[in-house]
Amino acid sequence: MLTNLFDGFAYGMLLFVLACGLAVTLGLMNLVNLAHGAFAMAGGYVCMILVNRHGVPFFAGLPIAFIVCAALGVVAERLLYTHIYRRSHLDQVLFCIGLIFMVDAVVDYFQGPQQQFINIPDFLKDRFEFLGVSVGAYRLLIIGVCGLIAVSLQLVLTRTRFGSRLRAAVDDRRVARGMGINVDLVFMLTFAVGSGLAGLGGALGAEILGLDPTFPLKYMIYFLIVVTVGGTASITGPFLASLLLGVADVAGKYYIPDFGAFVIYTVMILVLIWRPQGLFGRVATR
What we know:
- By secondary structure, the protein is mainly alpha-helical.
- The protein has one domain (about 1-220).
- About 75% of the residues lie in helices and about 5% in strands.
- The protein contains eleven helices and two strands, in the order ααααββααααααα.
- It has helices spanning about 1-25, 35-55, 60-80, 90-110, 135-160, 160-170, 175-180, 185-210, 215-230, 235-255, 260-275, and strands at about 125-130, 135.
- The protein has a two-stranded antiparallel ribbon.
- The longest helix has 27 residues, at about 185-210.
- The protein is globular and about 60 Å long.
């Protein structure tokens, strides 16, 4: 049981780093970026190509995946997303869905439809016993990296001047510009970091989740569930929601395999009945 709890915890951490970019863009930028998974897929493929085909060390491939996806995020934000910030959420959703299908077609053409995995170092494939728990080295790495990302992201958004400028830009762009805040630069950097984190999550998760052209559509619902259950008021909500859903998903598939695929949706429904705004969502006031 404790081993399953550990694996679920690691899976939840991975879900968080995959979904935290969407939590930032949706919660702080009010942008429904359903194409967020495309950046995660891009990071996975970048790391996979570098490691599997060009012999780049795995730990060097991870930051490269982050940088490449952050750069792609800058290009996409300046050329595409900047035009839909003030459009309705329906327009944003339709735009992102169309973008996903275009990216899927491109990846399918160049990489093929088959599922692929990253060749991680042999020592990360080991498992060892700790206090009666079978601990996987790779999942332990995921917990460490994702935990560091969660803490760093929360500190940046709540304790730095950049986080204050981002919140001010979201609340009222005209007033923020009048105060000397470069709103376009703040949004571009935020989108770039979110895209880079998605790419890093895709690279870390490729060994567990696998890579194929349907990745953005396959895991889009997971990203949405994390943000919906956690709420968009802070990063804490999506983080705790990721852990809850990760443990529930792994435990459900292990203990009740016939119903396991539905456990995560059951948890979502129960949480939203209890708190419709999410675990840490803003409560509407009259």
